[in-house]
Amino acid sequence: MRLTGAELDRLRSRRVSIVAAVVVLAVVALFQILIHSEVAPTAEAQASARQAYEAAQQSWQAQHTQSVAECVQQGGGTQEECESYDPAPTEAGFQVTPPPFDEIGLSGVSTATYLSVFAAFLVGASFIGAEYATGSLANWLTFVPQRLRVFTSKAVAVLLASALLGAVAVFATTGLTAVQVAGHGDPLVRSGHVLAAGGRAVVMVALAGLGGYVIALLTRHTVAAIAAPLAYGLVRTVVGGYMQDVDAPLAWLPPYLPELNLQAFLEHGATYTQYRSTLADGSDYTEIEKHVSFAHSSLYWLTLAVVAVVSAALVFRRRDVT
Question: Does the model's pTM come out above 0.90?
Answer without folding.
Answer: no
